[in-house]
Amino acid sequence: MTVIVTENAPAALRGRLSVWLVEARAGVYVGKVSAKIRMMIWENIVSGLMGGNAVMIWTTNTESGFNFLTKGKNRRMPVSMDGILLVAFHPSESGGSGSDMDYQTIVCQNSK
Question: Which pLDDT belongs to residue 60?
Answer without folding.
Answer: 93
